[in-house]
Amino acid sequence: MSVVLLFGAGCSTRKNTFGNRAYHTVTSTYNVNFNGKEALNKGVEDLNKKRKDNFLEILPVYFYPPKQDLTSAFPSFDRAIEKASKSVFKHSILLRGKEYVKTMNSAYMMMGKAYFYKQDYNEAKRVFNYVINAYSDWGSVEEATIWIARAEMQQDYFLRAQSLLEEVEPFIFQSKIKSNTIKDDDEIKAKSKTPPKKKSKYAKKKKTTTQSKKPASSSKNKKKTVTRKITDDVRLQYYAAEAEYNLLSPNKDFEEAIDNIKMALQYRPKKDFKVRLYFILGQLYEKLDKQQAAQNWFLKVIKSNTNYDMEFSARMHLAVNYDGSPLSKKAIIKELNKMLKESKNEDYKDQIYFAFSEIARIDDNDADREYYLAQSVAAYTNNDYQRTFSSISLADIYFHEEEYVKAQAYYDTALMSLPSNYPNSEAIIKKASILRDLVENLEVIQLQDSLQRIAKMSESERQRWVNTMIANYTEEERRLAKEEADRMLALQATQNFANVNVNTQGTSNKWYFYNPGLVSQGATEFYRRFGNRKLEDNWRISNKTAISFEDMADMNSGESKEEEEEFDADGNPIVRRETDPKKPAYYTQDLPMTPEAMDSSNMLIANAMYNAGIIYFDQLNDLKRSNEMLEKLIQRFPNHELVLPSYFLLWTNYTKLKNNAKADEAKNIILTKYPDTDYAKLILDPDYYRKLVEAAKENDRKYEQLHKIYTTKQWERTVQLADELLTLTDDGALIAKTSYLRAVALGQIQGEEALKDALTQIIKDYPKEPVTELAKIYLSTLTNVSQFLGEVNDPAVNTETGTGTETGIETGTASIESPFNPNIDEQHYIIILVDVHKKTVTDVKYDISNFNSTYFSLDRFNINSFYINQDEQLVTIARFKGKTDAMNYYIALTTNDVFEPSIKDKGLTVFAISATNYSIYYNKPDERYMYNSFFKENYQ
Predict the structure, then answer these.
(1) CA-based angle 910:915:919, to the nearest 5?
(2) Across the chain, which distance is largest between two alpha carbons, in Å?
(3) What pLDDT is stored for residue 566 in this prediction?
(4) Neighbour tally for 87: CB within 10 Å
(5) What DSSP character marks residue 193?
(6) Burial status of residue 358 (CB atoms within 10 A of its CB: 0-12, 13-18, 19 or more)
């Protein structure tokens, strides 16, 4: 009883007594800190559940999930931070700058790790630095320094990380390094009594420390020697961090990383981490072309009874690291074929086929490699990395073989699942876009050629072709129907067998799925009713063509509904397209059967040929194919307007290819048939375009001079300078702008009728120029000409000078600059635009409040809302320290299941915004629309 009273009374944090220290140490260790560590471990476990490693790249030593996957673990990490804070607040005995409760460093370390796992690296470094400064003699300095180094690496501060690890290094070597060695079967050994290959400034000091039998006798030396007790766990963390540095830093050092990992393995890492290190060693030896060593480590992975994904990937690496001998190849292919047949590998077939392709690559068998890569892509189920890698590998092969159509198909497949951090992703996206444009043009040529060929058939030949197409379709339909009937018969037989052999009596108390007989019956009945359906949304619908509610209502009523005739904008009836492949019109509706239709088809072919020639020339640098395409264009359409630019491109291409005969042929045709064109002038004078550019700049300078005279209301001089400039340029935009200034000046001199005539002429001659809209507006202020002008906007117009304020065209050119400040290094808000017709602000604010309490429980945000127009309310979440914090919140909110659907259907629009830009956004409603592009450019 007295002990209980003693500890019950010993709860003061203001007195340093044995009872107080004991009470707070025990309570913080087994209560608050324990619960905090449990929460921290749960958060790490939640992140690991979402881990999806890319085994095609060297695995990182530690897994860092993308930020959108962090949110679910935030509550656990926040609880750990809260418990750490509570431990310090309630149990710290800090008197005169000295801490007396020996668990406080653990509380702060727990807090720092929680911030680290939240990827709030700045806050984590702040906490770890506090540990280093406040608890320098408590055994946490080295561990805290290692965690800071890891945070620096994640922020790409590798020099800082290297410096921090060098600070820790001498203390790691103070005690004797373990003597057991890590040995490969090829006799590659880790050094057990010396540090890794890295030559550090501490090497000599370490050697002296490990070899001396007695400590130095002088008191001076004793004062200089700093001895710290380093645990095996800290040594493990140190070597793992060193390995991480050597794998992530710009100057990667794979051999150094291998030594680091082998040293880490000596300090008994947990099983999952140990196997991960085994796998990384295998990958690193693979990169160094040490195949035998790589195989040894992958074998260790397989023997470790790890998760199947890693084990399977290790087997794949074994397969692709064969030595090229027939005996080895035979054994590996046998193993791969065996794996293909195993049902448990259904989701891994893409990797198996990729392993086959790697064998073909080593054997220089291009045909087999292409086949197996295609099989790998086709076998995709859920491994986005593998589909992307196989697709790009195959697309690259086809691209180098100049099989651009095939290459484009596989690049497009890769883009379906291309990770944002995939190597050279921007180049892949650009190449895919180029090829997509090329293939679209080639398909136009192919389609129109086919349609023309069929259109030119005799009536009887065309009818036979149509009948053949219908017969082929009908035969294929019959074949599929027979396959379905045979399958249904087999299922019926299975059901009959199940009905005979399954005895369901005496199993009424057994759950359905524990009874294999009942499960078999259920599966058979399902197949009988629905056939073989994929597990997906709307699985009951075999043909998932979109059906409207009206169509469904008509089908349910059983009544046939007459199709209403539709008309185009000119009032002409729209001919409905035939969609039934059993009707002749389905095959003939696009045939160019009239001269006008044939001309349109030829126009499509010519344009597509020219575009393809440009893409070959300009984007793919395939001059040979560019020339072939352009020569086909000239041969087929000798009178087409694109013949002249085609000849010029031929001259350019053949000049580059140093085919002087062909180049001279194209040049002579241009100079003979088109002597007055820019193309001919450019051939004769290579500086022709430079001179044109200089002339254009001079004309722009003259226009600026003209405008200055115009703004000073020197009307006669304005007309004079405008007339001079109009004789010097054939640039339509410049002519329209100059004519507008001349018209306004002329109106001031000659009166309103002259102004009307001049403005009307501008509208007639330059209908698509920006200044024409300004001319319409000015003219509408002079007289009622709406029948001629049509509908026009009504911006504010200065009728004295004729300038429009909302068009952004004072001098005839549209130029609008964003009002938002690009300097966004300041406090931030999150703003949410709520479409009041789709969402209620009350519900949105309620959801935000729940979201904050669940995922950002340690933060205190203010949530406000107000109408910014009759259709939208603005919800403001304030405030954040800077752009990084705001964007972390933005990512968490926009990927949350509660908000994501409303964001996709435009019910909610979310932005991060700086304090300065928030004020601009609020005060300039007419320019708010520009923030969307500003946000994408500066934040995303």
Answers:
(1) 90
(2) 118
(3) 60
(4) 28
(5) S
(6) buried
